Amino acid sequence: MTKSIALSLVLAASLGLAACSGGTENAANSAENASNAADNAMNAALNAADNAANAASNATNNASNAM
To answer: For position 19, what pLDDT does the model report?
Structure first.
């Protein structure tokens, strides 16, 4: 849900800017770049969440092993 909202906003902004430049090809490239940037941002957020979960799991394991 969040990804689709963010992607929609990024696409709308990039298409608006591309329309001002007057190039259809530029608009397509800008839209693809915006989509890729949104995907990369979402993947980075998911990776950060996974890393945090792994760190919490490792801390739990370390505490259990210390007993």
So the answer is: 60
22 Rama sector, left if φ>0, alpha if ψ -120 to 50, beta otherwise = left
Residues 6+ apart with CB under 8 A from 41: 6
Distance between CA atoms of residues 48 and 11, nearest Å:
24
Neighbour count for residue 34 (Cβ, 10 Å): 21
Residue with tokens 């849900």: 1
Which stretches of the chain score pLDDT less than 70? 1-4, 7, 15-24
Could you report how far apart the first and last alpha carbons of the chain are, in Å? 43
